Amino acid sequence: MQLGCDGVFVGSGIFKSSNPKLLAKAIVDAVNNYDNPKAILESSTGLGKLMFGVQVSDLKENEKLASRGW
Questions:
Q1: What's the gap between Cα 62 and its chain centre?
Q2: DSSP code of 49?
Q3: Where do the H-state alpha helices sit in the chain?
Q4: Residue 3 within a domain
Q5: Cβ–Cβ under 8 Å, residues 39 and 3
Q6: How much is the pLDDT for 70?
Q7: What is the pLDDT of residue 4?
Q8: Is residue 29 part of a domain?
Q9: How far apart are alpha carbons 35 and 14 in whole angstroms?
Q10: What is the C-alpha separation between 40 and 35, in angstroms, rounded?
Q11: How many domains does the chain have?
């Protein structure tokens, strides 16, 4: 936000968390208070389990949307 961002896209990150409503509120609060570290800390505490990551190297070939390279 301090560098001129005018929007935030989170996609499925919210819906794959354990508490989507709380996470969505935390993201809105963090964006609205981007220049207040204390407010960001408060809004990002106690959010529960967040979206899990997936290693591309762990995907089976049929789970990939596209293959790259040779």
A1: 26
A2: S
A3: 12-15, 20-32, 37-43
A4: no
A5: no
A6: 55
A7: 83
A8: yes
A9: 22
A10: 9
A11: 1
Please report whether residue 56 resides in a domain. no
Expressed in percent and rounded to 5, the helix, strand and coil fractions of the chain are 45, 0, 55
Inter-CA distances, 2 with 10, 22, 33, 58, Å: 18, 24, 11, 36
With respect to residue 2, please indicate whether it lies within any of the assigned structural domains.
no
Of 52, 41, 6, 44, the C-alpha closest to 24 is 44
How far is CA 1 from its chain centroid? 16
pLDDT (tens digit, 9 = 90+) per residue, 25-67? 999 999 899 999 999 999 999 998 988 788 888 888 888 877 6
Domain containing residue 36: 18-47
Going by pLDDT thresholds of 50, 70 and 90, the confidence category of residue 68 is low
- C-alpha distances (whole Å) from 6 to each of 21, 43, 46, 52, 58 are 22, 20, 27, 26, 35
Hey, what amino acid is at 2?
A: Q
